Amino acid sequence: MLEAVELTKHFKKNKVVDGLNLFIEKGETVGLLGPNGAGKSTTISMISTLISPTDGDVRLKNESVLRDPQPLREVLGVVPQEIALYTDLTAKENLEFFGRINHLKGGLLKERVTQVLDQIGLTERKNDIVKTFSGGMKRRLNIGVALLHEPEILIMDEPTVGIDPQSRSYILEQVKRLNQEKGMTIIYTSHYMEEVEFLCDRIYIMDKGHIIASGTKEEIKSILSSESTIVIKLEKMVPTFTEGLSAIPSVMNVTSSEKEIVMVIPKEQNLFNQVFQLAEDTGAVILSIDRKTPTLEDVFLHLTGRALRD
């Protein structure tokens, strides 16, 4: 349904996106993952025709949209990273304004505003000024704006950043429902791996302007099918202990956060004796050590060398 072909974007001498290829089939939810600076937002901006690529093409149903973006814009809804609302207007007034921009009017506009307010759970607050809303309510209204014209394709660029868990859960359930009940095609970027696990049929992992892996969740996880993940919890972090783990020849990846270390090793390896000896030598106090099957987060760390939120 929607395709990016050899998509490239330069900002002066900086190549932010470099020969990127991806496709989205009708009715699927596709996750676009990458650490900060990977080029996700630039890619989203090009796909949604907000900025023009330096090279490459964006195609809707096999037709380029670069010269005439209107066919794509008519079927596209975009939920940007930043809140894009008029905070001195009410929720209802915001929806009416953006509905008119999307050529809705009269009875149809009134009907869609009512439906969307119910959909995003803001009917009781429809006449309240938006600047009095919580972050989660603003996010929900931001999504409502994108849904007014009933788009076939919805692009959501980190729609749950900085909101409370209850609002986040509500938004995720609504996105799932849009896909399953309405058949809406969704492109979803996030800094939360569990969101992508919950929502997405397929995943593209992006780093330094390139797609470095793609496939279903199972296919992505199979990248580390011959490896195991070891999780070590410590009383306190000891830098020499972490450095010692990294120096073990068979250890493929080591990351640390607060009092936890995660390392990837070949599945057939048993390094427990070495780990405990190293802890004794460096004064590290191990609270627990656990071997587990690699997760999507582990694969991401393995491929990029960084956590998703880095």
What key phrases describe this protein's structure?
6-stranded mixed sheet; Rossmann fold; 2 domains; Alpha-Beta Plaits; 4-stranded antiparallel sheet; globular; alpha/beta; 310 residues; 14 strands
Number of domains: 2
- SSE order: EEEHEEHEHHHEHEHEEHEHEEHEH
Radius of gyration: 23 Å
Biggest sheet overview: 6 strands, mixed
How far is it from the N-terminal to the C-terminal residue, by CA? 32 Å
Count helical runs. 11
CATH superfamily of the largest domain: P-loop containing nucleotide triphosphate hydrolases
Class by alpha and beta content: alpha/beta
The CATH topology of the largest domain corresponds to Rossmann fold
CATH architecture group name of the largest domain: 3-Layer(aba) Sandwich
List the helices and strands and how they pair.
Layout lengths: L1 E10 L2 E11 L4 E5 L6 H8 L7 E6 L2 E2 L5 H6 E4 L11 H11 L4 H14 L15 H13 L5 E5 L7 H18 L2 E5 L3 H7 L2 E6 L2 E7 H5 L5 E8 L4 H9 L5 E5 L2 E7 L5 H11 L3 E7 L3 H9 L6
Parallel strand pairs: 3-8, 3-9, 6-7, 7-8
Antiparallel strand pairs: 1-2, 1-4, 4-5, 9-10, 11-13, 11-14, 12-13
Helix pairs in contact: 3-4, 5-6, 9-10
